[in-house]
Amino acid sequence: MSIYGTVQVKDGKYRIKGDFHNITPNMPIRKADEGWRLVGVTNPRDMIYIHSYGGEAVFFESLSKGKIHASRCDNPDCEFKGSIFLPFRIHCPDCLGRNTVIDHTDICRNTARVHTFMVCERSGAFNTLDKPIKFVNVEFDGVCTILMSYLSIGEPRIGMRVIPIFRTISPTYTITDLSWVPEGTPAGDLPEGFTFG
Ligand SMILES: [Zn+2]
């Protein structure tokens, strides 16, 4: 049995099972150059955060299957009817209506370009991406938003054509399951666990 708590939803309710707060024993902090006198303790704590995706769940599920889902406002009364959002937005920011979920994989594959980028040599706690992290803002034909993601191979440049890749093998169901590579990258060069779809 896992030492970590797990969650399922049944009959419309979150059912949690197991431990969500784990305490491990303290360790003394001692001062080596003063006869190992006690100066403090470490307090290891392990906490599980339950992150509910709500209406965005379809987006993360689709990444694990090599698909990019966007959303579109189809409200006939909206001034900006037809707007397509990626990152996925549950609601239209202009009319607040519920958007339609659309499969946008082919348009992403055929039109994605680097709008701008930044390269980070350092990262915060719990970083799982290889450093330096090449963050790219990706733009697509017909999409009114810009997607923040990361380039897995090569050096980013503005206007560069990029192709989506997906962590379809052991997906994490987070945004890092989606990444990008330069157009023309051979399948054999992709990072472990990633495929073109
Ligand atoms: Zn709208």
Question: What order do the helices and strands come in, and which of them pair?
Answer:
Elements: E1 6-10, E2 13-17, E3 21-23, E4 27-31, E5 37-42, E6 45-47, H1 57-63, E7 69-72, E8 84-85, E9 100-103, H2 105-111, E10 113-120, E11 133-139, E12 147-151, E13 162-167, E14 178-182, E15 194-195
Antiparallel strand pairs: 1-2, 3-6, 4-5, 7-8, 7-9, 10-11, 11-12, 13-14, 13-15
The structure holds zinc ion.
Structural commentary:
The two termini are 33 Å apart. The mean pLDDT is 95. The chain has two domains: 6-41, no CATH class; 54-195, no CATH class. The chain has two helices and 15 strands. A three-stranded antiparallel β-sheet has the order 8-7-9. A three-stranded antiparallel β-sheet has the order 10-11-12, with no helix packed on it. It has helices spanning 57-63, 105-111; strands at residues 6-10, 13-17, 21-23, 27-31, 37-42, 45-47, 69-72, 84-85, 100-103, 113-120, 133-139, 147-151, 162-167, 178-182, 194-195. The protein is mostly beta strands and 197 residues long. The structure holds zinc ion. Residues 73, 75, 78, 80, 92, 94-95, 97 line the site of zinc ion (ZN).
- Number of extended strands: 15
Straight-line distance between termini: 33 Å
Count of discrete structural domains = 2
Strand content: 35-45%
User: Could you give the order of strands across the largest sheet?
Assistant: 8-7-9
Q: How do the SSEs run, as a string of H and E?
A: EEEEEEHEEEHEEEEEE
Q: What is the share of helical residues?
A: under 10%
What Rg do the Cα atoms give? Answer: 22 Å
Low-confidence segments, given as residue ranges, are none
Average pLDDT rating: 95
Outline the biggest β-sheet.
3 strands, antiparallel
DSSP helix count? 2
Task: Give the names of the bound compounds.
Answer: zinc ion
Anisotropy-based shape: globular
Which class best fits the helix and strand makeup? mainly beta
